[in-house]
Amino acid sequence: MTVKTHDLPGPQTIARTTLDNGITVLVYENHASPSVVVSGSLHTGSLYARPEQSGIAVLTANALMRGTENRDFEAIYGSLENIGADLDFNTRVHKTGFGGKALAEDLPVLVGRRAGGRVAESNIPPPTSRAFARRGPDLAALRPA
Questions:
Q1: What sections of the chain are H helices per DSSP?
Q2: Which residues lie below 8 Å from residue 116, measured CB to CB, with a gap of 6+?
Q3: What is the pLDDT of residues 57-91, one digit of tens each?
Q4: Percentages of the chain per state (helix, strand, coil), in multiples of 5
Q5: Backbone phi, then psi, for 67, in 5-degree steps?
Q6: Contact yes or no for 101/111 (Cβ under 8 A)
Q7: Running DSSP on this structure, what letter comes out for residue 119?
Q8: Euclidean distance between CA atoms 122 and 125, whole angstroms
């Protein structure tokens, strides 16, 4: 089997552009697969939170998929599941990441998911809630030793 090097991802096959807001976008087209994969990261992990805000990065990443002012949990997940798409957010010490997969024809649905408005405050559990209490071990791990 012969592999054509001009078909492999590399500087000659990946288009690179920087948007006005500083975001760098890389695109690799593979016409053999009618799907799209979106991924990225931001320098906004738990390392950047003040000690009194320990755990806020985890709570924010979790709240992003719980609903917005305009779209609730069921609307977000229903629209993704109806097309077999996937979208998620996560946070670590140094970065917050996002990723998603969908058929190429469904890319507008995938990238439009967060355009529904701000995260609804009702989706962020108060510190006294059971949801917050279950996060205790995760939150404790984020605190400096």
A1: 56-63, 73-82, 107-111, 130-134, 136-142
A2: 68, 69, 70, 71, 75, 76
A3: 888 888 877 877 777 888 888 888 999 999 888 88
A4: 35, 25, 40
A5: 140, 160
A6: no
A7: B
A8: 7
Tokens at 41, concatenated: 């990261």
State the amino acid at position 83 in one-letter form. Answer: I
Residue 50, helix vs strand vs coil:
coil
What is the 3-state secondary structure of 77-116? HHHHHHCCCEEEEEECCCCEEEEEEEEHHHHHHHHCHHHH
Q: What's the fold here for domain 5-142?
A: Cytochrome Bc1 Complex; Chain A, domain 1 (3.30.830)
Residue 55: count of CB within 10 angstroms of its CB: 19
pTM of the model: 0.63
